[in-house]
Design brief:
eight-stranded antiparallel sheet, elongated
Amino acid sequence: MVPALAATALLVSGAGPSHAAPAWDPKPSPMTTPWTNQVPVDHPLPEYPRPQLTRPDWADLNGIWDFAVTSRDAGQPTTFGEQIRVPFVPESALSGVQRKITQNDKLWYKRTFTVPSGWSGRHIQLNFGASDWETTVWVNGRQAGAAHRGGYDAFSYDITPLLNGGTNTIVISVYDPTETGGQAIGKQRVQDVTPHPGKSIVYTASSGIWQTVWLEPTATAHITRLDMVPRLADNTLRVTVRGAGGADGTSVKVTVSSGGTTVGSATGTVGTELSVPVPDTHLWTPEDPFLYDVTAELTGTGADKVGSYTGMRSIAVKDVGGVRRPVLNGRFVFQTGTLDQGYWPDGIYTAPTDEALKYDLQKHKDLGFNMVRKHIKVEPQRWFYWADRLGLLVWQDMPSMDSGKTPDTAARTQWESEYRAIIDQHRSSPSLIQWVDQNEGWGQYDQARIADMVKAYDPSRLVDNMSGVNCCAAKDGGNGDVIDNHNYVGPGNTPTEPVRASVLGEYGGLGYRVPGHEWYPGGGFSYEDQPTTTALNNRLVGLLDGMRENTMPAGGLSASVYTQITDVENEANGLMSYDRQVVKVDQARVRAANQALIAASRSLGATVKLPVGQNVSIRVTTPGYTDRYIRHYDGLGFTEVVNSASGDVLKQDATWTVRPGLANKLCYSFESRNYPGEYLRHREFRVRREASDGSTVSKEDATWCPVQGSGGVRMSAAGFPGQYLRHINAELWLAQSGGTHAWDNPAGFTEDTTWAIEPPWAP
């Protein structure tokens, strides 16, 4: 795959901080991860930072820099009285600074370097993985290009004209207003950098340089990007080579290989699409994340050559058994994943090591998940590399603007520009299958237009115009490839549609606090606290089983995102503690539940069909009670013996008209035959006959999703998959096997929740 490219050692003379400064020391981390004390002082995160565009020569600039903080309008300071470990942000312990940065501050970085002699005659690129937010660079006192604005996209400067042939000095300023500005911030907010109370779903800000900084020599005309799109229809890889320094129109050869053996190649020009044959295509899937090696080489002696990789896969939405579903390589597979915030107690936005960056993704695999939603943050390219290699489907959120503001014209222009840059940077990653534009209405605007823009800019992936359209005053643009609800604890059931696939962008949030592994002891919160790990496991597995048994086959759900993979600061709803020291759940049991859910999606049969618009009676199938039917009496649901000798009122009370589900048209609602407009619904677990008040809750409570049972159908609640319509002691209840109520008694549960749909007693 990607070679382990070692950084060229910078010449000792002049390397590192530009002058003697106070000795650097890390600050104590609020919580210690397994990697906190493994971070090198001089060269943290030494791995090659751009795996899909590699060159053999490069020099890592991570390490100790001189550092200063001034007022936001101040010029370059004359002295740099501190030191910082780059690329950790000054708010973090690993930076050695650990201080709150506000909109009134400007950050300053300084160091020297000498270009290795072997790079003579080539252009020198100064590359940044990411720096938040407005970054200005000077080399030897002269500014390198325009200031870069953006917190999540990579950027570079050709600094060749600014070099002096000896010891060179870099000075960098960064201004980051966080939520006081109008830019994309995700979950960052200015707050104390040490643990403090507060039940908040937003976290400590990360200002300044937070991804690797490095030097790289290139030819004058050089490659800047490979846009790669697999096309399974004709077994080709479509590649557009992008370039700079006069590379446009230059002849280029692209080669795809496997294990050192060439699979296919094509020649064309920079800036135009090439079609590289990939015969006998080995598909990329989460179970078999096979990657091909790719090289691109400009023609001519000493011309630029880069290495890369790709995975051959397709993603689309199509009809599967009459339901719109996402299909990977033409087949539906349920996407079960977690919400991944990407925060660390020691590095905040920056994982302490590459192994730590990989760890969270590996834990998804260990727990049986096949997908991850990267939540309103964009990770370094090495994170995508690990997702590609390990085999995880990725939903990538665009970081949102402040949730409390309506963005002005300038903010919108900046946000969209940064979004396109992020798409360009990650558009060739095989694991990335869906862009998520906006979340729960945070900084929302022009949802439909943006979804169309993203789809046109990258038609090879799915687009989610708004995650959580049912939440928080969010507005659905009505377009894109999926409709996405949030439901805590859920999982609930996202209503099906004729064009978009139904997904659950967030659910769960089950909490368990682990003593000794809390960011602020006693301050953790969740959407539903669990008293023990046993209760946590039972509840989580119950949610996964409910989707397998009901929401997926009966309700048409195609994907779900559990909140969340780790605790984050005062959120205690992770599957792991924030310090990654404790996995809270039974890994084998959760893995088995996820694997069963995925396996069931591959053999999904047709949905159960009931006779819409017709009258039916619903009969008990429990042995010894098969002469009883569902009826209403004084507004409550019961079962009662009904036969030809029964009175007309009883027969009418035991007759229901099948309607399309009020909350999900793939499911059903049962309207009383003699009380039109009133439906069989659950409220406070008791099932009754009641009119809908038009609310979402009322509609969901009156919607039942049938799944095939032995000798009949089982009716699960649309809003509570895994909970069923049950008779017990002649009363109707919404019940969950093994739950905490008397009506959840597991004895006879399956029989008591299985019903026969019969001809009506009253026509």
